[in-house]
Design a protein that fits this description.
- Strand 5 and strand 6 form a beta hairpin.
- The chain is built from nine helices and seven strands.
- The chain has a single domain, classed as Spore Coat Polysaccharide Biosynthesis Protein SpsA, Chain A (Alpha-Beta Complex), CATH 3.90.550.
- A seven-stranded mixed β-sheet has the order 3-2-1-4-6-5-7, sandwiched between helices.
- It is of the alpha/beta class.
């Protein structure tokens, strides 16, 4: 018997401009390094999403470098008129999913380089039985690192800690029973210096991990005390 495929899903990756990415890493990385790391993390995320093939994939951005990076990989972009924030970028992609008549919507950030195809396939299979919502928390438990909605307009999404608990509450207020999936790869978003150590531990084979090894990040972390 053949495996039942998930319903068509629009997968959206919101990305701000690379030049101002990862400000909390300023004590450890130079501006060019932060930019290179942000680009490498996005490539890691996109590679996993392409491998998982959950449905049409798009990057939401206005940054020319991100547009070029996605274009080189044949990935569609939704171009924003301004950097209005993560929540607004996700809402734009949700509207696109509705416009296209797709059954589901998934959003995942571009700074979770340890995400794997297996995690994405597990997440993608979560709502096979019908309408609903599913969320992947950040490792801290405060943020929302992935949201899967069936249908795409099942509920609005609003990001920024403590978005995870807020999303659960908002879903229940709409009569939905949210599915919670703690997935370690998706859960690790890279924001602070201590996150780089976890990235080296868990994602040494990623593009991002390769960069960190080349920059001798363990020594730099040790110097921070």
């Amino acid at each position: 018997m053949s495996r039942r495929l998930p319903a068509p899903t629009l997968v959206a990756v919101p990305v701000k401009d690379l030049d101002h990415a990862k400000q909390r890493l300023i004590p450890l990385l130079e501006p060019a390094e932060r930019r290179a790391l942000a680009a490498a993390m996005l490539e890691d995320v996109l590679a996993a999403l392409v491998a998982a093939a959950l449905g049409p994939l798009c990057v939401v951005t206005k940054d020319e470098a991100v547009l070029a990076l996605a274009g080189r990989q044949g990935i569609r972009c939704l171009t924003e008129s301004a950097n209005r924030g993560h929540t607004e970028a996700v809402a734009l992609a949700q509207r696109e999913a509705v416009r296209l008549g797709l059954a589901r919507f998934l959003t995942i950030p571009g700074d979770v380089p340890c995400v794997t195809r297996a995690e994405l396939e597990r997440l993608g299979a979560t709502l096979d039985a019908g309408p609903g919502v599913a969320f992947v928390p950040s490792l801290s438990g405060f943020g929302t690192n992935a949201a899967l909605l069936s249908p795409p307009a099942a509920m609005p999404l609003k990001f920024g800690e403590p978005s995870f608990d807020n999303h659960l509450e908002a879903a229940r207020e709409r009569g939905l029973s949210p599915v919670v999936l703690p997935l370690p790869g998706i859960g690790l978003d890279i924001d602070a210096p201590e996150d780089l150590g976890l990235l080296l531990e868990r994602g040494s084979a990623t593009r991002s991990g390769t960069l960190l090894r080349a920059w001798d990040i363990p020594r730099r972390l040790a110097s921070l005390g």
